Amino acid sequence: MSAEENDKALVARARKGDRRAFDLLVLKYQHRVQRLIARYIRDPEQVFDLSQETFIKAYRALERFRGDSAFYTWIYRIAVNTAKNQLASDARGGYMVSLNSGGSDESDEPMMEPEALRDGGTPDALAATEELKGAIDRAISELPEDLRTALTLREMEGLSYDEIAAVMDCPIGTVRSRIFRAREATEQSIEPFKGG
Amino acid sequence: MKQRQANDPTTLRDTVSDWWDDEWQAGEREIDALLADVDGVRSHTRDYDLIGSRLRGEPLVTRDLLDSINARLDEIPDAERPGGGKVVSLSTARNWQSRRVWQGAMAASLFAAVTAVGLTLSTGERSAVDVETPMQAEGETDNDRAVMASLNAQQLPEDASPAALAAKAQQSGVVQVSTAPSNGSKLPDWATGRSGAGPDPYVVTHYRMASPEFGTTGPEARATTFDRK
Is the CB of residue A55 less than 8 Å from the CB of residue B65? Predict the structure, then answer.
């Protein structure tokens, strides 16, 4: 089964009432959905709320997902519509917001830089986040060259395993193994810094 | 393509890595294995997202929303959840119940209507035999007798003049109705609506002839609804 078919298989199970199948879909796409919504919405709390809303809507509409498109296309569309509806709603109540904020409110600007999820909260949380960033950077820099290259091509360039194999001139199984080992090593390095 | 069983932690990590990258060639059994350790998948996806977003220079702080999403999904009524047959059967059972209630109400109202009609009919018949209504107690009115007399009287020739007709009617004592303004003629009590006057005798007569089965119960009620002015 391809990735798309895997998702459809999970959708089919979720439709039959298997909530764990829907959990997997949430786990796979929740971060991407949050980043997508963050391009429309500035307030982080609103981004989280709308991301939740996106998955609730998707769950309620699972019966109507015909599988003509990929699940991620479908969930992204729901996310974008949810974000746009929020913007429209904010715009309708915009006078009050503008008056209260001195007229400098720019929250209805779509496709802003994804700053909504910038580290917020207490100084302690900020410090913990900085530590985590540093730990990830260190772990990646300490990776063997071939692992780091494979992971970087995957995460930064978005290349498929086939394409990475072509670039690195190695079998696809080797690419698979390198990426997995790079992640495993990094995970272990950042474990003490995750803090729950 | 290589297929893996996600039965042990290392294999699970490996599987999640492929799955995360959309490079997982799975069958139903492999999906079962992944579903068996959703918490493990959750932990690894969180880490993989952190690593990937750091490499891309994205803001780190996305949130794990699974618990809050599940809390909200728990609040969704069963009927609105995807679940195929179960939901449908629940819904069908509910429809069946509501249909039964609805049918019961229909049957009860039909029974009540039939009973009411039956009672009305039987009461009417009995009244005709046993009970004297106020109208019957009064017996024939003067006007009734006058009408009957005029009907029994000798027919006038077809070419009789209006004056002759009027004269004949006056002889028999029938109250004449005219569209012309009243020239001081005195209207009977029932026509003026004075208190103590009986119902309109024409209505009563008509009712008795047209609906004899309601003859004893209908006329008074019906007459009171007429505006006598």
Answer: yes
| Chain B interface test: which of A2, A16, A27 (most B C-beta within 10 Å) | A27
Mutate to test the interface with A, among B3, B49, B51 (most CBs of A within 10 A): B51
What share of chain B in percent tops pLDDT 90?
17
Radius of gyration of chain A (CA): 20
- Helices of type H across chain B: 9-20, 28-35, 38-55, 66-74, 85-130, 134-138, 142-152, 162-172, 189-192, 201-210, 218-224
User: Could you read off the pLDDT of B55-110 as tens digits, one per residue?
Assistant: 999 876 789 999 999 999 998 888 778 865 443 333 334 444 555 666 777 788 88
Which range is most confident: A26-30, B200-204, B218-222? A26-30
| Under 8 Å between Cβ of B12 and B6 | yes
> CA triplet B219, B222, B225: central angle to 5 degrees?
145
Of A18, A34, A183, which is closest to B63 when you measure between CB atoms?
Answer: A34
- Residue A67 reports pLDDT greater than 70: yes
Residue B39 at interface with chain A, using a CB cutoff of 8 Å: no
Encoded amino acid at B51, one letter: I
The answer to whether A97 and A105 have CB atoms below 8 angstroms apart is yes
Asked if the Cβ–Cβ distance from B70 to A151 is below 8 Å, we say no
The DSSP output letter for A65 is -
Low-confidence winner among A135-139, A141-145, B192-196 (lowest mean pLDDT): B192-196
Write the CA distances from B196 to A3, A5, B146, B188, B192, integer angstroms.
Answer: 95, 92, 21, 12, 11
- Does A56 sit within 8 Å of B73, measured CB to CB? yes
Q: In sequence order, which ranges of chain A are alpha helices (DSSP H)?
A: 3-15, 19-38, 44-60, 71-92, 94-100, 123-141, 145-155, 161-168, 172-194
For the segment B7-21, what is each residue's pLDDT rounded down to a tens digit?
566 688 888 999 999
A30 contacts B64? CB cut-off 8 A: yes
CB contact under 8 A, B54 and A118: no
Q: How confident is the model at residue B23 (pLDDT cuts 50, 70, 90)?
A: very high
Whether this model's pTM surpasses 0.80: no
Contact indicator for B219, B207 with CB cutoff of 8 Å: yes
Write out the two tokens for B14: 């490996």
**Is it the case that residue A113 has pLDDT exceeding 90?**
no
- Region of A105 please: left (phi>0), alpha (psi -120 to 50) or beta: beta
B79 at interface of A, judged by CB pairs closer than 8 A = no
**Type of residue found at B23:** E
